[in-house]
Every structure is written in C-alpha cells, then in structure tokens.
Amino acid sequence: MSNENSTINQIENQSVPCQVKERKEPHAVVSRREFLKLLGGGILICMSPESILALQERGRQFGREEPLDFNAYLHIAEDGRVSCFTGKIEMGQGIYTSLAQMLAEELEVPLGSVKMVMGDTDLCPWDMGTFGSRSTKYFGPVLRQAAAEAREVLIQLASEHLRLPQDRLEAHDGFVLDKNNPDNKVSYASLTKGKKIEKNLEGKPPLKPMSDYEICGEPYERMDAREKVTGRAEFAGDIRLPDMLYAKILRPPAHRARLKGVDVSAAQAMKDVKVVQDSDLIAALHPTPDGAEKALGKITAQFDVPDEKLDNQNIFEHLVNAAPEGNLVDQKGDLDKGRSLASDTFEATYLNKYVAHAPLEPHTALAKVEGDKATLWVSTQRPFGDKDTVAQALGIPAENVRVITPFVGGGFGGKNQNQQAVEAAKLAKLAGRPVQVAWTRKEEFFYDTFQPAAVIKIKSGLDKQGKIVFWDYMIYHAGERTSQVFYDIPHHRVFIRGGWGRGASDAHPFSVGAWRGPGSNTNTYARESHIDIMAAKAGINPLEFRLRHLEGNPRMKRLLEAAAEKFNRKFEKAPSGRGFGISCVDYLNTYVATMAEVEVDKRTGKIQVTRVVCAQDMGEVINPEGARIQIDSCVTMGLGYTLSEEIHFKGGQVLDTNFDTYELPRFSWVPKIEAVLVQNPDLPPQGCGEPAITNMGSVVANAVYDAIGIRMFELPMNPERVRKAIEQA
Amino acid sequence: MEKTIFFKLNGESTQMTVEEDRMLLWVLRTELGLTGAKYGCGEGFCGACTVLVNNEPVRSCQFPMKDVGGKEVLTIEGLAKNGELHLLQRAFMAHDALQCGFCTSGMILTAYSLFLKNPQPTRKEIMETLEDHLCRCGAHTRIIDAIQTTAELKSEETR
Questions:
Q1: With bands split at pLDDT 50, 70 and 90, how would you rate the model's confidence at A204?
Q2: What is the reported pLDDT for A64?
Q3: The CA-based dihedral angle spanning residues A374, A376, A382, A384, taken in that order and rounded to the nearest 10 degrees
Q4: A637 to chain B: which residues are within 8 Å by CB?
Q5: Which of A22, A48, A348, B41 is the most exposed place for a label (fewest CB within 10 A)?
Q6: What is the pLDDT of residue A40?
Q7: How far is residue A110's CA from residue A126's CA, in Å, rounded to a whole number?
Q8: 3-state class of A487 per DSSP?
Q9: Cβ distance A522 to A456 under 8 Å?
Q10: Of A290, A408, A410, Cβ closest to residue B26
Q11: Considering chain A, what is the average pLDDT of its residues?
C-alpha cells in the first residue's frame, strides 16, 4: 500500500468525520464519536452494512445472500489489547471462541490477547441477532477482512517506525518484524501508542490463505470453558444488584384466559413482600426467589377460560382447514405432463407436532430503571430487539435503554422473543428497585414460541424406469426452508401455506417461531421419507435411488458417496430388516448427508439409534473441531423431535409443564456419532449450527422402515405411536 | 420456622438462620452468593441444581435447609483447590464437554461423587449415573469422554 492512496484517517483533536450514515431507525447505536471517546486511542476498524455492501459490489464474495444485518468494531488499544465489539451473543454455540480465533489468525496476535465484547447495546454497534447459523458464515469473513486491514495499518505504521519499505515487513504474534532480520521488530502496542486511527472496512488486503493458518482449525479450548467449569460464568439469573427483588408473576391457566378477579391481600400481608400491579401484570416481589414464589401462592385469582376444542389430537385437521392462501416456492416443467408420464403414483401426508425449545436456562431478565433510563441483563439472542421492545413498553427513548447479555444458557431460536425483559422493566419501574424475572419451567413451556405443528402433503410419480417424473409438494405451516427441489425431477411444484416467521398464521393456539433449523426439520422429514417410499416401490436401494436422481447435483452426489464410504454398510432394497437409514439436505447451501442404524423393539415400540454417520459440506471449514461439536449437538438434540418431543395441549392450556412429560434426549439415547467433514475450500464458510439436525427425523424414519417395514408418517416416533403403527400394519 | 443451621460449605464452617423448609438452591444462590448451581426445572428432573451433601449428589431445588444441618455441602465453587482445577474440570475443558454451560456444574459434581465411590467406572456406569442429568445442547458424548478420560488419568496417577 503506498502512502498516496492510503485511506487512513488520522484524527487529532478534531471532530470525527462521520463516515457511516447515522442510522435513523429506532435501533440507532451509540454514535461512533461517543464510542471513540469511550475507547481512547488506538486503531478502530468499523464494519457496517454500508462497508460490507461496498465489498460485495467490488466482487468480494461474502456468502450467497446479502447479510446486511450487523455492524461491528475491531479495536486495537494504545496498549496493544485487541477487542471486538459485536452484538452477537454466546449461547453455547462457541462463537465467543471461534470469532476470536478468526480475528487473532488474521491480525497475527496470540488468541489470549483478544477480547470479545458481545451483546452489550451500549458498547456494541447494532446487530439484528444471533440466529440462523449466520455468525461464522456472514460475520466471520467480514471480521477477518477487518483484521487484515488492521494488520495492514500496523504494517504501514511499522514501515515509518522502522524506516523500512512495507514489503520487507510482516506481522507475527503481536509484532511487525523485518523479514530479513526478525530481531528488528516493533510491538503492536508501541505502534498504536498515541495514535487515533479510524477507518471503514475497505476489503483491500488479501486474506491469509488457509494453508498458513496457525490458530483457526487448531483444537483450542473454549475461551469460556474455565468460567463454565468453575461455576463463575455469569448468566442473567446470576447477576446481583444492591436492593434487588425477585418477581413471580401471576399467570393465566390458559392462553386467551381473562382475569376476572384477584385478591392479593394475603400475599401483601406477608413479611418483606411487595405486590405490584400494572393492569394485567400482577407480581409478588421479595428479596429471595423462593420468597416471591411463596407469596405468589397466596394470591388468589379467577379467570374466564374460553371453551376451546382444539387439542394435540385434532390440531392437524384444523391447521389444514385454517391455512393461509399461500404462494409458490419452486416450480419446473408441467405437473400435468409429469402425471401423464407416471406409471406409479404416490400420495402421502407427513405430520409433526409442536416442539419446545426448552433451553436449560429459562427466560431471565434483571432490570434496573432509574428515571427515564433502564439497564437490563437479559438471556437473549436479540439484545437490540429487546432494547427497542423495552423502550416502547416503558415509553422512553431507545437510546436510554441498555441491554447487556451475559452468557446465555441455550437459545435454539427460543430467545429471539423476550417478554420477560419487558416484565422485569415494568416491575422494576413500579417497585423503584431492581427486579429479576426468571421464568419457572412451567412458564417456559407456556410462553415458548414453538416449532409449529405442520402438515406436508406430497404427490409424486415414477415412470417405468424408476425415474421420478413429478413432485407436487404442499406445505401447511412448516415454512419453506429446504423445501426446494434439489433432485432431478423434470416436473415439480412446491407450494407453501403458512410458516414460522413473521407470516406465521394465527391458526395456531399459541406462539410459534424459529426452532433450530426452522422449517427444515419438517420439510426434510417429509421429502426424504417420500423419496424412500418411491425407492422401495421401484425396488432400488435408497442410496442408489438418490444417486440416480442427483446427476444434476454433483456436490450432493459426492457428499452421499463420502457418507456411504464412512458408513461402510451396503444399502439394500428396503425393508432389509437391518435398520439402515439415509437422508440428505441442502440447508442454506450447507449440504448434509446422514446415515443411521437403528434397533426397534417391536413389543415396546422403542427405537434405539445406535450409530449415526453425518457427512457435511459447509464450504471452507474454519474450525473442524467446532464443526464436529455442532454436528454431535445436532444429532443428539435432533433425537428429541424425532423420538419424544411434542407439546400436549387442550385449548389454550399447555399440559406439559416440566421434563417429566416433555422428554429431552438422555445419555442412554445417544448413538455413536461419526462426523465426516468434506473439504470444499472453493466455497466460503457456510453455516454449521443447524443443518445437521434437519436430517434426523427422516434418517431415523427411513431406518425404522428398513428395520421393520413400517412407515412412520408422524413425528415424534414415540413408543406408543410406533406400537400403534405396528398393530395397524 | 426460622432455625439456626450449622453446616460445612465448601470446607468452611457455616452458620445461618433461615426458614428451615427453604430449599438449599435458593439459599445458596441468594444469601450465600454461590450461583454455580442453577435452576433448570425446580422439580428435580434436570440436575442443573445438583450439589453434593456428604458427598452424595442431591437436587438442591428439592433439598430443604433443615436436612443440611451438620452436613458437608460441596458446590462447584468448592471443587478447585487453591486455584488448582480438579482433574474433572480440566477434562471437561479439554474435551469441549460443555456448550452453554448451564448443566455443567451438576454434571461435574455428580461425576465427582461417582469417582469417590468408584474410581474406575466403565463408560456404561458413567452413562447410567448421568442418565437423569439433562443437557439441551447435546454435549453428551463429550461429557462421557471427559469423565472417562479422567478415570483413565486417575488410574495412571495411582499406578
């Protein structure tokens, strides 16, 4: 980089030129000016949607979709300390470590010198939230680019300092050194001292090639591991403030129930108890959580509960009848023509029930409200979203609300919505003291935004050669993700009526939302089951049948072959009696092929998954061990929606209140898991936190069919449902 | 009824005057400031609140203060000695046997208690011991690996 076209802005005692358009949205962030003041000197690289867009326009690839939903800062302080400020949060997925690794790698500093400041709305620039397996895929490359640019700035400074041309210099381990004489070096701290340099991401310097990686891909311990094994890691419920109170809130027995009358006098009379009310929000406050719970027990209330007939048995019929109009997702050829070519036709309906997120940490928030300012510590995947919601609820400007995100005890999409933050803020305002709201497990089930119960109807046909000639796919309420056709099918149509996101239908008796791999758990289960049904009818083994329909998709073909090699068991025409299953998915450009072995106890109906091979092509793999952890996690968690997890309800009443009736996967359920990471370095890194979970329903259903010749058309495949299917066969 | 209860907490003699039917979890987390034990379900199903009482794992959300009298309570905060992590803690770190970390304290303490009784547990014994501990992140295989490695290291140490 020559000095003439240097783009560094030296800023000395003058107002900072505002290069990033001030966001006028309610989520306006701390202005960059204030932020710089807060940080002191050093080097600041700003990553903003504008700068990222500029990179994309310059043709530098940052993933297939346009990720304009975050900002971040990279700062190297005057003492050489490196910090990254991002609105992303750590909920177990490990980005606290993996983002730091990417940053350290590209900036050439030891991992230990990097500090991640995450999810604090006063310190971090605006970010949409942490979901959709997007952090590594979209933020990762941008962060690496920012680190590369910071490194270039340091080399430029070092060139002046050491009086050597830049091409003689290289950065390593927190120093810039002379390539010809490595002892002639200068530390980052000496270079940043007294400087105040601010620049926007420009995408100029090339990124370090993967072959030179020293940190990424190495099995580093998680940076949060020590705190988490010693009990020191703080979650929202672990934060303590002087004078704080714990709240327990009066809840209706059912959704849509109306409060008729309430008597709080007995609770009010209890020692140290304060009862507060803001229209329907009635809470008992006490200096201890159990004291608040006890006081809540003394509040008597009557509710009008509407007489509703909907329950978990009749929900599917209702959902089909009440489905919204819908729209086309994917289409090719002419379905009528396809039908005329078919010699065998197939029609099947696939169902799945409501599924809860059930993170072990229930929704929690601590709020401190002073005048028209509020500070909250929230278990959230969307701190900036909560900031706006809380501001609105309190009727104060958004810039007066600060949301801090401590470690989050699991999210899976369930902590995108945070009613508890609003509750804590309102109660803290009423009480004039800090208030913690930590939901009980029962509240957690009651207010969860479930994966929607859904129905998929598929009609398809094979010609005499065993080729699929048409595919007519109708989605009710699942959402469209991964419903697009990736097999060679000349005539197909995919139509959706209802999803899980903003367009979710009000036909549901309670809230629904994004659940790890949203939409795709249902779609993959239906599609891959149906493919297997056709393979069985065609008399072709399910692997071969898939490969024959993937001539136009060599990437998926290669992946299936890699999975089959690891699986090392020969597929035969199902049912073979051996219990082998197969499933594949293109999840937002991460490809996953899963193979499984199961045992079915025909007497009890219990399914035991004994082995899972999961091959994944996620583009360039930044951190192989991190990817394996996510695959283990997806396979294990996926056993839940596959085998046991469903919400039981009657009208607006959620009957599951704890883990006795709502069963999560346990140690004895977990199969041997073998992950295969198929290298695809030509593709930038894709998401990894969700894709592998989406194959679990189908791979197990297909393996069950292979084992006992029974096709399971409904998830979860709990023992009762399996027994029933066996009886009816 | 309020009662003065004497017990040992992480090796320290402790005395507290509390309602005797209050659950240990809330006293630990509130008055005693030890937040390593977590509330996950409140009914003893998940194991996130597990602490050891006289070396036996108990669900502290179900364990009243009156039963703590005269006993020794060990929480996750008391497992490391003089800043030196216990082998199990190091193994959990080395094996990435945690993600969100919310179930971790309970898992480690139950495993620790298992080792006191059975220094060489088999993989099956480890799984059976942890069966009633829930982990939503799906770190199960790595948790078993960490505990098994600890068993192997311990056997090397004693050899």
A1: confident
A2: 40
A3: 30
A4: 136-138
A5: A22
A6: 79
A7: 28
A8: coil
A9: yes
A10: A290
A11: 91
Least confident among A36-40, A112-116, A685-689: A36-40
Per residue in A312-337, pLDDT (tens digit) is 999 999 999 999 999 999 999 999 99
Q: What angle do CA A362, A123, A449 make, to 5 degrees?
A: 25
For A:262-321, CB contacts with B below 8 A are 287-290
Nearest-5° angle of CA A718, CA A722, CA A724?
120
Q: Closest to A231 (Cβ–Cβ): which among B26, B40, B77?
A: B77
CA–CA min distance B47, chain A (Å) = 10
Give CA–CA dist A646/A643, Å, rounded.
9
Enumerate the domain spans of chain B. Answer: 2-78, 87-158
Which residues from chain A sit within 8 angstroms of residue B95, using beta carbons? none
Averaged over A534-556, what is the pLDDT?
98
Output the pLDDT for position A217.
Answer: 74
Quote the CA–CA distance of A346 and A570 in Å, as a whole number.
26
Chain A contact for B100 (CB, 8 A cutoff): yes
Q: Which residue of A has its CA nearest to B44?
A: A659
- Which CATH architecture does the domain made up of B87-158 adopt? Orthogonal Bundle (1.10)
B62 touching A (Cβ < 8 Å): no
Mean pLDDT of A193-211: 86
Asked if B116 has any chain A CB less than 8 Å from its own CB, the reply is: no
What pLDDT does residue A28 have? 38
Question: Residue A141: pLDDT band by 50, 70, 90 thresholds?
Answer: confident
Q: How confident is the model at residue B158 (pLDDT cuts 50, 70, 90)?
A: low
| C-beta atoms of A222 and B85 within 8 A | no
Measure CB to CB from residue A658 to each of B43, B99, B101 and give the nearest one. B43
Task: Tell if the CB–CB gap between B93 and A225 is shorter than 8 Å.
Answer: yes
**Residue B104 at interface with chain A, using a CB cutoff of 8 Å:** yes
A58: confidence class by pLDDT, cuts 50, 70, 90: low
CB-CB under 8 Å, B33 with A360: no
CA A525, CA A703: separation in Å to the nearest integer?
A: 12
All structural domains of chain A: 9-220 (3.30.365.10), 236-305+363-438 (3.30.365.10), 315-354+450-728 (3.30.365.10)
CATH of domain B2-78: 3.10.20.30
Amino acid at A647: I
Say if the Cβ atoms of B138 and A409 lie within 8 Å: no
Strands A196-200 and A42-47: parallel
